[in-house]
Design brief:
Length: 816
Amino acid sequence: MSETHKKRMMPSEERLRPPEWPSGRAHPPQAAFSVIGKRNRKIEGVAKVTGQAVSADDICLPRMLHGKLLRSRHAHARILRIDATAALAMPGVHAVITGKDLPEHYGIIPWTQDEQALCEEKARYVGDAIAAVAADTELKAEEALRQIRVEYQVLPAVTGIDEALEHPEWKVNERAKDGNVSKHVHLEFGDLDRALEDSEVVIEDEYWYEGSTHTPIEPHCAVADFDRSGFLTLWSSTQVAHYLHRDLARVLDLPTQRIRVIQPVVGGAFGGKSEPFSLEFCAAKLSMVTGRPVKILYTREEVFYAHRGRHPMRMRYRTGVKRDGTLTAVDATILIDGGAYSSFGLVTTYYSGQLLTAPYRMLAYRFDSTRVFTNKPCCGPKRGHGSVQPRFAFECQLDKLAEAIGIDPIELRRRNLIGEHTRTVNELRVTSNGFPQCLEAVERASGWGGKFRRLPYGRGVGVAGSTYISGTNYCIYPNEMPQSGVQLKLDRSGRATVFCGASDIGQGSDSVLASIVAEELGLDLRDIRVVAADTDLTPVDLGSYSSRETFMVGNACLDAARKLRLEIGATLAALWGCRPDQVSLAGGVACWVEDPERASMSVKEAFQRTEARIGTLGSVGWYQSPKLGGDYRGGTIGASPAYSFTAHVAEVECDPETGRVEVKKIWIAHDCGRALSPVAVEGQMEGSAYMGFAEALLEEQVFKPAGPHHGPGLHHGPSLLDYRIPTSLDTPEMESIIIESVDPEGPYGAKEAGEGPLHPSVPAIANAIYDAVGVRCNRLPFSPPRVLSLLRAGGARERWERARAQVAAAPAAAGR
């Protein structure tokens, strides 16, 4: 057996370890970091702000046609006949395709492949794609769509969770095995019924989290070019180039080696581009039919219908506690509106329960989650996939428990901390844990002790905490290959090129890779080029989802860079008569750390000497997570090599006469392990808090019931004028506090910072509203009519006064 094959057969716990220096130290020999942890700019920042960055819609190829999709006007209808004769007869129209041209089903999860690029037999929501046209111009393609005649048989539409469960005969998706149930998960850990009986206080309540969409700056866009040799090149604003590559081969019946997917600069995604979409398959097929390149750009309205945004969830929680503050039992029943297709729904259903079990201990936990199909656009992953909604409900439950037993909400959370290097009740492995420091940071920075239950009527503060994964060890399709790979090339000119399949969607993964190489090899960031997300040029990376890139691609890059560093160290050690671990590479200079005056040279010369010794300089690095998760069905879903932790305090002002809520400030403390780039981490923290604040007060992706002039399923406002998101004038002040726990397995100790900081925003605001005016907001969004309705229901002022009297009677409980 070859040494390479032996390496592949090693346990994954061994494979993830980067090479060590001969002395046994895993970190570089220099005393301090020279690049990591510094406030560096993103390497692509200048290109973006100057307009030089090339997005998918910037691409214009010779002889390129423009494609458009015909979409269903009905929420649920059988397709009886499609007549494209008139469209094809129009000058400038080159092709029309329908579902019969792309019959293969696909889906991001291999076990739930229930979509077609174009509906062949039935449309399942208003906006479902029916046919596609390629024409000389976008305008000509739109005119051609109006000439296509579709004969429908309209079917009863399922418009909500209750209707889906009550009418299984109105089957939305024929691939569902049980009526309209997309996925059902029931898991229990510990003796929940006994734990509830032993609880001294039990709070039960119901919550509704309205669905929302991603609203990225850039709409979805794809450009396809099928050349005469039978090779397909597709440029797409995707965040999962590898999975798109696989599904293109499946749907188009092409060998994978005859397809190239390139991801240009992406103008935001937030999970909304984390699976293949109809436009990518249709652009490719139209190019194959016409022999010319084809571009399809979604309109903003199309983005709203094709969105794959946050699932609406109805959640009922029973939560128990002892009088001393010990959390005893959590019982959750969750109903999820998944829309018309599966998407990531299998994972969403698990995530709605699996990711709740930290950062607090709980003696027993049960969750029962059901995702249903409805005749609405399909829901999928949005920042904080599947766990933002339950976190809102649970953190509000904790505040209600704290009030019931007369304990400060921060103190209740502090008494139930799970700690580090431990396991949760559902067997998730927790390594580093900076949540205690997060709580302390927001408590101190916000002046919590002087504000909680002490501000005048209409003003209040609220707290919430959370945890999130740093990548998932569960690959979407089972395999033993690396989850991330990097190829690193050093040039004798002193330049490095990183080849990696990672998708930078604005979060800064390209900059992370460049920073790691610069740190290990002593280079300036300007001397590093990152070639990313091109399936012809780069090794496989699974994409930007589950906050995986920093941890997994970072480890792969560190592996590759450290291998070259060791070779350079060996070359210079032989030259200077020292040990390899006494060679430092930093700031463009290589030197012997004990005698830099006598033994030093530029890193460029060090590269050249090493190339003269061993040949062309290049290396590969890769990462595969260890085996994680519990030994039960679904135990690997939610299992991660590391978890981030976050705490928020929000301060709000609520007008009791109008119900208008204004968030004055949010304090955000986030444990990201080591902050490789503090500026990027702070940006992610503020972006996450902004998104949570927006969902709390404004956002809702809702659909109209049947009206006199239309059927059910029309989007209430599919535009950025009608779908309300905060402007810069609406956004509150934010204070970001980075907590560094330094994870033992992350690259330089880093963990995620992309999605975790969102989770506490909504419950912190909800809890602050109660502190301000005495009403509990259990339903999103917290709009003025909804808050005013709660205030007019009566008893708010009395609850507000009782809460303050409780604090006055026990002053030591409020704050530290």
